[in-house]
């Protein structure tokens, strides 16, 4: 906000200090200049003088003066055209930008003709100039729109790679849209191959899910949306359907799926502008299919969404149960320092042990836990196990992910201090990562946490930089030591000039702020070489090492 003194200062500034707008060129006027080598003489026409904003009768014009009116990015192009005309003794055409005396610039087409003396030797150059700013502006705008078309994602409808269905986040968006429009119902179906060892093989499971997705698409009506909402879960949105119609269609779908696999369903009814949002309805439907499995029935019907308070309590109980039964586990991924070419740190990654399919990404669980304020216990579980690992291996440096809600929770700072004291860990072994894509609940508490862990000697990292809500703001809000460049801009870096520009800019910004950089998703040598050239400090990805389970004996040291 501008202070009163600043407003007053701007108010009294006379408007005539601004440059005069450039008037359109008179197309009938002939603009030209000549350069004669003998005496280094420049002569230009009144029309050319008007173009560049200089007096027509100006004395002492030289080639240095003329060169200063060529846009700096076009100097080489203009010099090349002049050299070609001079040496080849032929007419050369070029298009360059000229600078006006007031700092503005415009485009010209220039025809360069060599001027020969009586002996046939070239003694100078004559240039005929035509203002083509309108044409070139239109060309640049067309090129700009083409670049934007190539670099902007065509659609937000991202298909799940295994099934071709909507991903959970996009499916949730459609549920929220349906809640604003009319009533309906949400079905979540869990499919499972069986209890055999073959049933838990990843390739077999992907094939099963793919077949189930195709069957649901075949049986569902065109107006019903389908998405993959979990590792083995398919959601079907019956928007604008009556409860009776949704029940009949859900039973038909489950009956068809039962012919090829074990399956259980949970169907939840919702009304327009209901209290429960998309995530609440998904939780209710997922809880309903679990009840179906426990009761050995095909489907559980929920005629009314669960109250928010009850849902939070139920989910907290599920998180506590998962923590108590070791359904959470840790993996680690190595991070290579490019200066020494040594693995100097590891990132700890949380995995959820599914009932049948082994370790799964925790994104779904963490997203729901964060929205229902049940994430703190999960983050604390990870921090404590990181402390144990660091205590068991004093030379080990670990990076620990924290949710935005936990970072803003005043309890976290105290817990970290207690754990450091209990396990007698060297604080420099730990770097806490906050993700840019997370909305931090309380910025003041988050800053208090960041300042305190830095005072203790721990590091602070910003994950997924360039992809989320915070942009560059977090670099000013928090004492960040290390930034992890989002892998989306790294995975195609070698073949994508736009990503190269972005990564270079991110690295330069971080260097200016005194922050180290890590590039994620590094999968080949060519990408690694380019990241070295761009000045990245650390790299992480399958080329360096895949995530692997944290064994009881600890991590392998580099």
From TrEMBL:
Q: Which residues form the EAL domain?
A: 312-558
NCBIfam families, per this entry?
sensory_box (TIGR00229)
Question: Mind listing the GO molecular function terms for this protein?
Answer: cyclic-guanylate-specific phosphodiesterase activity
Q: Which PROSITE patterns match?
A: EAL (PS50883), PAC (PS50113)
Residues in domain PAC?
A: 92-144
Show the ranges annotated as biased composition (Basic and acidic residues).
1-10
Origin: domain of life: Bacteria
* Ranges where the record places region Disordered: 1-23
- InterPro entries documented for this protein: Cyclic-di-GMP_PDE-like, EAL_dom, EAL_sf, PAC, PAS, PAS-assoc_C, PAS-like_dom_sf, PAS_fold_3
Q: This chain belongs to which protein, by name?
A: PAS domain S-box-containing protein
